């Protein structure tokens, strides 16, 4: 398999997963939780811009 063929297969797999993940709102939310972007409670994780319980110290 050439580099070009490998890259094409990767792009196809990404496109298939994206199509599956946006099929419905429920599936999209489950995908984001499974990938670790949202918590099981539906909150955005801190690493992705969610709020932290810790107070931030001004520099």
List keywords for this structure.
elongated, 59 residues, mainly alpha, single chain
Description:
With 59 residues, the chain is mainly α. The chain has one domain (3-46). It contains 2 helices and no strands. The longest helix is centred in the first third of the chain and has 19 residues, at 3-21. The chain is elongated and about 50 Å long. It starts with a helix and ends in a 25-residue tail after the last helix.
The amount of beta strand, in percent, is under 5%
Overall pLDDT confidence? 91
**Order of secondary-structure elements:** HH
Radius of gyration: 17 Å
Main β sheet profile? none
Helix content: 40-55%
Span between termini:
52 Å
Shape: elongated
**Low-confidence parts:** none
Multimeric status of the protein: single chain
**What's the β-strand tally?**
0
Can you tell me the number of structural domains?
1
Number of alpha- plus pi-helical segments? 2
SS class: mainly alpha
Topology, element by element:
Elements (H helix, E strand, L loop, with lengths): L2 H19 L3 H10 L25
